[in-house]
Specification:
The chain is of the alpha/beta class. The protein is 47% helix and 12% strand. It is globular, with a radius of gyration of 23 Å.
């Protein structure tokens, strides 16, 4: 067991990537570790001819994944777009792991990011002593990806100020990154491309310019279409999380996962699962990622402060915390939902009481 808190995708699934590479007989684009078909198999899961099982990393429509992979085999960049918690960053990481064998060439978008973080910076001690030179230049992950012919990831693109976003226009259209201080440019090698992520909750924060939008092929990642798919995603991710964090005790029962997912889906959709009762929705997203976090926290509570089995009282605190983002409005929404839906639902009395105590 690794002592690293969180392994990169290419580290955690190194055996799967190696097996896929050995069995992959299809054509591979320049610098790709796997063929596009094998990349899809890595992401969606498969069983190889020798019986080796590749676990799914993303549960969703294969055609959507094929479009994303095919985009990266062209000269257009890929934008993964959707509501928070739809596995955009997760899919981005594993695309880079499967294609380049390195998911660490990452620019994390924030409101305070500078143009240097996107393009390149300087070692100021060397700059002052020697003047501008290649030795004084500090490469950004984007520049390194261009030099090496690999994928670069840009997270939360719409969180980045517009003037920094526009740094990408020349890179994506001309495949070069000018360094005017040295009177040279870095030209992208074959295999280079860019994967960006953005969520629609940030719409209007730093809207993408039309010039930049045209240089991306946008793939919208939806929320899971049905409850069974969402439960499966949560179950798989929680199992992986428990193994990574070495959480003692039992994995959360499928029944407990389904109850949390049901609550989140109903409040998210504004209607109960049977379609009979309309509900008010809270201000938060209540995404699949938040359901994973709630179950993971419940398992930790049960392991350290309970009998190891996840009970309603272990989940209640994080359920309420996930729903109540606005202490006034969301608390009223949750209270109404508990009284009109959860209280009357057979077999849910323990969860109702536990959540009421936390409210």
């Amino acid at each position: 067991m690794s002592e690293v808190l969180r392994q990169h995708g290419e580290q955690q699934y190194a055996e799967e990537l190696a097996e896929l590479a050995r069995s992959d007989q299809r054509a591979r684009p320049a610098q790709w570790r796997l063929s596009p078909w094998a990349v899809c198999d890595y992401l969606l899961g498969c069983t190889l001819e020798n019986g080796f099982v590749v676990q799914p990393k993303y549960i969703g429509a294969r055609r959507l994944v094929e479009i994303a992979v095919a985009t990266l085999a062209t000269d257009r960049a890929l934008l993964l777009y959707g509501v928070p918690g739809t596995a955009k960053s997760w899919l981005s990481e594993h695309l880079a792991a499967a294609i380049s064998g390195d998911s660490t060439l990452l620019v994390q978008g924030t409101a305070g990011i500078s143009e240097e973080a996107m393009r390149y910076g300087w070692n100021y001690a060397r700059l002052l002593a020697q003047g501008p030179s290649m030795e004084a230049l500090v490469e950004s992950p984007l520049m390194r990806a261009m030099r090496q012919g690999q994928l670069c990831r840009v997270e939360e693109l719409t969180r980045i100020p517009g003037e920094v976003q526009d740094t990408l226009i020349t890179v994506l259209s001309e495949k070069t990154l000018p360094v005017p201080e040295l009177n040279l440019e870095v030209q992208a090698r074959r295999g280079f491309n860019l994967i960006a992520t953005a969520n629609n909750k940030d719409r209007g924060v730093n809207e993408l310019s039309s010039a930049l939008k045209r240089r991306f092929n946008t793939v919208v990642l939806p929320l899971p279409a049905d409850i069974d798919s969402e439960v499966e995603i949560v179950q798989r991710r929680v199992s992986s999380l428990a193994q990574q964090l070495q959480i003692p005790g039992e994995l959360a029962a499928l029944e407990q996962i389904r109850r949390v997912v049901t609550m989140f889906r109903e409040l998210r959709d504004g209607v109960t699962a049977d379609g009979k009762t309309k509900l008010k929705s809270p201000s938060g997203t209540l995404s699949t990622a938040e359901a994973i976090s709630v179950i993971g926290h419940g398992m930790t509570m049960a392991a350290h402060f309970g009998d190891g089995l996840v009970q309603a009282q272990d989940l209640a605190g994080s359920v309420v915390g996930a729903i109540v983002k606005d202490p006034v409005q969301d608390r009223l929404v949750l209270a109404e939902y508990l009284e009109t839906v959860i209280k009357e639902r057979d077999g849910w009395k323990d969860l109702y009481r536990a959540c009421r105590e936390m409210c």
